Amino acid sequence: MSISDVVVIGGGQAGLATVRVALDAGLSPVLVDAGSGPGGSWPSYYDSLTLFSPARFSGLPGMPFPGDPDRYPRRDEVVAYLAAYAAGLDADLRWGVRVDRVRRERDGFVVSTASGEEARARLVVAASGGFGRPHRPALPGLDSFAGTVLHSSQYRSPALFVGRRVVVVGGGNSAVQIAVELAETARVSIVTRDRLRWQPQRILGRDFHWWLSRTGLDTSRLGPLLANGGVPVIDAGRYRTAIAAGRPDHRPMFRRLDGDRVVWSDGSPERLDGVILATGFRPDVAYLHGTAAVDGDGVPVHSGGVSRTVDGLGFVGLERQRSFASATLRGVGRDAAFVLRALNGARAGRRTVSR
Q1: Model pTM?
Q2: Residues whose CB falls within 8 Å of the CB of residue 312, separated by 6 or more in sequence, listed in order
Q3: Which of 11, 273, 274, 333 gives the lowest tally of CB atoms within 10 Å of its CB?
Q4: Omega into 248 within 30° of 0, i.e. cis?
Q5: For 286-335, what is each residue's pLDDT tens digit?
Q6: What does the radius of gyration of the chain's CA atoms come to, in whole angstroms?
């Protein structure tokens, strides 16, 4: 069996960017993905999803996002962009291939698939991202709640909730965007444990991503420290105005769910039809479970995307992996370049292999 330079697991933005960076570095990458085509999680996001970064800041390495650079692309535009990006890569891209296990051997890695096939590689980059495993928190009464419960990854449009009473759990960008959309046709509350944090979308006439880029915070290791209090909601004014008007209203986290009711923080009950959990995701690296590459919760053990425990293994697409922009379209290319340089340098330096 031939040995590839690098196997990239995942065909979303992180995996595609990693393949491009590998090609530019003179490597011969093989990409494998369980989906039927490129795009990762993007095709399954909710219909109205809109990027918070302008098109000029949303391109992958070597291919600017097309169209007006100052517009904010929609989900379907991103899906089409990623498909075009994949089509332009002169690389071995294998779709419909689910990786079951990655194991380290003396001369590299063996990547085993669900169909029983194996691929060997000197390096492996896990680019299946941080958005493949929806996080469902253990909220009191959630498991026995009589109404509809969806994670934001399952939400598509307001159609299911027209005229109904709904609670959206979470205070990030997706939570607010979904709650405001729902509130146009339903009675909606958004609930959080802490206050909502806001980031103006434009500062002195420029999108705040321009300022992040100009100041260097977008790529600085200090960037994630600025978000220690939680990721702010990026807003041009629409969302904050809607919440201030009570559509949706913002409330403290409820005490519990009880049958078909929610019990609010003040003890008052109210009938409830649905709960949407905009509570984030966890890294989707099940193929590494049981190895030294992840901890007991399945979270990668890494430094800037380079495994701390397994030589030759890297990660691309994790939130706050190296900077504030990690896991975004504008950030994965830089992270991929860092990871591949580190892995190649370590291989050239003949690091001791971790078993």
Answers
A1: 0.91
A2: 104, 108, 109, 122, 123, 124, 343, 346, 347, 353
A3: 273
A4: yes
A5: 999 988 999 988 899 999 999 999 999 999 999 888 887 888 999 999 99
A6: 21
